[in-house]
Amino acid sequence: MRYLVTGGAGFVGSHTVLALLDGGHEVEVLDNLSTGHRAAVPGGTKLHVVDLLDRDATDAVVGSRAWDGVLHFAALSLVGDSMRDPFHYLRQNYLTALNLIQSCVGHGVRKLVFSSTAALFGGPDRLEPIPETAPLLPGSPYGESKMLIERVLHWADAIGGLRSACLRYFNAAGADPQGRAGEDHRPETHLVPLTIDAMLGRRPPLRLFGDDYPTRDGSCIRDYIHVTDLADAHLRALAQIDGRSLAYNVGNGLGYSNLEVIAAVERVSGRKVPWEPAPRRDGDPAMLVADATTLRRETGWTPAYADLESIVRTALAWREAHPEGYAACGAPAEAGFAIG
């Protein structure tokens, strides 16, 4: 099959590109490289350097081939930033997706997998996993932008015949077990790489926000899913689209606390993590875990790296092998670049 992956130079997108290539598929990547990395695109994979806000350039890429499907990862994704600059997030995420979806309908693309978010489920604190049937009440402009895109996909199906799968998840973590890709955000905001960097002495002691939540150890509980397992979920969802659109939650169903993340890094590395307590951050719920029962039942998806140590081990191996992330990697060999 032939697939176009938007945001394929980013964290989750690049790992999904690897999964597609490993499955024998033909893949091209569309990315504006605002947060992604050229070196994250595997050698030999064509990269279209295009901003999805550019309607004509987007349409040209979508219309350049007969795609069997499109996987859409390109988006701004920081909840805190979206609270500080809501209109930028709403405009960027919504309009880029709208341009892409319109082009897909116009050029007869029949399948689209959308990297959505479990941040759609806002409201009061929950101390149990969140099912797909939970009310959609985004607690941030970031979550709101994803919900708007899901509504566009509803109409693209009803009127344009574009079937879609929306995958809702929280915290992707880890790195490709073969060491081909990893996590490299500038700046880094995710707990696992921040904890590893604190342990390695690459940053000041980790600040742990809140120690008085109604959880098993007083720290926040979050749903961490290995990025390779997440990529597998996208491929399995793609196979389910025939004849219908759908939405799946993706998660480990357990959740790990902030203190458990620190303990896992210490066990895997054999070194102490310097950290210090800090006050709660406004808006941080006690627990965010996605219930992936439907995904498991309908696709047979089972995380291969469900335990926290596996997630940390691959993340640490990537960080130690690439202390500067992709900065020292350069462009991948034999990659074909199309500048839009």
TrEMBL record:
Keywords for this protein: Carbohydrate metabolism, Isomerase, NAD
GO MF terms held by the record: UDP-glucose 4-epimerase activity
Needed co-factor(s): NAD(+)
This protein's pathway: Carbohydrate metabolism; galactose metabolism
Keyword hit for Repeat: no
Domain of life: Bacteria
UniProt domain NAD-dependent epimerase/dehydratase: residue ranges: 4-251
A Pfam family per the record: Epimerase
GO biological-process terms attached to the record: galactose catabolic process via UDP-galactose, Leloir pathway
InterPro entries attached to this UniProt entry: Epimerase_deHydtase (IPR001509), NAD(P)-bd_dom_sf (IPR036291), UDP_G4E (IPR005886)
CDD domains: UDP_G4E_1_SDR_e
EC number: 5.1.3.2
EC top class named in words: isomerase
Reactions listed under catalytic activity: UDP-alpha-D-glucose = UDP-alpha-D-galactose
Family to which this protein belongs: Belongs to the NAD(P)-dependent epimerase/dehydratase family.
Assembly and interaction partners: Homodimer.
Protein name in UniProt: UDP-glucose 4-epimerase
Species this protein is from: Endobacter medicaginis
Name of encoding gene: galE
